[in-house]
From TrEMBL:
<dbReference type="Pfam" id="PF01812">
    <property type="entry name" value="5-FTHF_cyc-lig"/>
</dbReference>
<keyword id="KW-0067">ATP-binding</keyword>
<dbReference type="GO" id="GO:0035999">
    <property type="term" value="P:tetrahydrofolate interconversion"/>
</dbReference>
<protein>
    <recommendedName>
        <fullName>5-formyltetrahydrofolate cyclo-ligase</fullName>
        <ecNumber>6.3.3.2</ecNumber>
    </recommendedName>
</protein>
<feature type="binding site">
    <location>
        <begin position="22"/>
        <end position="26"/>
    </location>
    <ligand>
        <name>ATP</name>
    </ligand>
</feature>
<dbReference type="GO" id="GO:0046872">
    <property type="term" value="F:metal ion binding"/>
</dbReference>
<dbReference type="InterPro" id="IPR024185">
    <property type="entry name" value="FTHF_cligase-like_sf"/>
</dbReference>
<keyword id="KW-0460">Magnesium</keyword>
<feature type="binding site">
    <location>
        <position position="73"/>
    </location>
    <ligand>
        <name>substrate</name>
    </ligand>
</feature>
<comment type="similarity">
    <text>Belongs to the 5-formyltetrahydrofolate cyclo-ligase family.</text>
</comment>
<dbReference type="GO" id="GO:0005524">
    <property type="term" value="F:ATP binding"/>
</dbReference>
<dbReference type="InterPro" id="IPR037171">
    <property type="entry name" value="NagB/RpiA_transferase-like"/>
</dbReference>
<keyword id="KW-0547">Nucleotide-binding</keyword>
<dbReference type="GO" id="GO:0030272">
    <property type="term" value="F:5-formyltetrahydrofolate cyclo-ligase activity"/>
</dbReference>
<dbReference type="InterPro" id="IPR002698">
    <property type="entry name" value="FTHF_cligase"/>
</dbReference>
<dbReference type="GO" id="GO:0009396">
    <property type="term" value="P:folic acid-containing compound biosynthetic process"/>
</dbReference>
<keyword id="KW-0479">Metal-binding</keyword>
């Protein structure tokens, strides 16, 4: 995978250096993504949705968790609206709910038009609806590497969630090509993704055991 960013850390792989490298990388890729013009963001988001729909047609009949887009992340809401309108048996759109900073995420059913309110991080969250375990997680990424590791915002919510959910859901990263890097400098707690979908295609990784 051709990386967009290369950062060096000490040969000893010092934890402090790794944290600095991850923080620097996060800032760089966020800056690049937030610099996308609205028409670029819209076109790339549409391509991500089309790629996801083509590569994973079975999702229209599964419990799918996605994230409300923030900071110019790919917008999956048009695709979720299409899947909801299709009304296939078994389909359920879920949004994550942060119950506490050090706990895994919970997931609440949501349909377009239903009420949302900002959570402690300012992200729109359903105010009602049944709780359910997802079969698929569509996880936003700030960066991802050739090994399938993802760099998020640093809260560790999806890592904790993937580590504790049984059976483990299919974990698909959602991002733009500008998020491709050589390494995110993974830590021991980082959980590998099964695949990543960007505007240019699907990047699959070895099955997570």
């Amino acid at each position: 995978m051709q990386g967009q960013t290369r950062l060096e850390i000490s040969p000893e792989n010092d934890v402090g250096d790794t944290r600095i490298a991850r923080r620097t990388l996060r800032a760089q890729v966020l800056s690049a993504r937030e610099a996308l013009a609205p028409e670029q963001h819209e076109a790339r988001s549409a391509a991500v949705c089309a790629g996801l729909e083509q590569a994973y047609p079975e999702l229209v009949s599964q419990r799918v968790a996605f994230c409300w887009p923030i900071r110019n992340e790919p917008d999956l809401r048009p695709l979720i609206a299409r899947w909801t309108a299709a009304a296939q048996p078994g389909f359920m759109a879920l949004l994550p709910v942060v119950e506490a900073p050090d706990r895994p995420l919970a997931f609440r059913r949501w349909q377009p038009g239903e009420a949302l309110q900002p959570d402690r991080y300012g992200i729109p969250t359903p105010v009602a609806g049944e709780m359910a375990k997802p079969q698929v997680l569509l996880i936003p990424i700030n960066a991802f590497d050739r090994e399938g590791f993802r760099l998020g915002y640093g809260g560790g919510f999806f890592d904790r969630t993937l580590a504790l959910l049984h059976p483990r859901p299919l974990a698909i990263g959602i991002g733009f090509d500008l998020a491709r890097v050589d390494t995110i400098f993974p830590a021991a707690h980082d959980m590998r993704l099964d695949a990543v979908v960007t505007e240019t295609g699907v990047f699959s990784f070895p099955p997570v055991r």
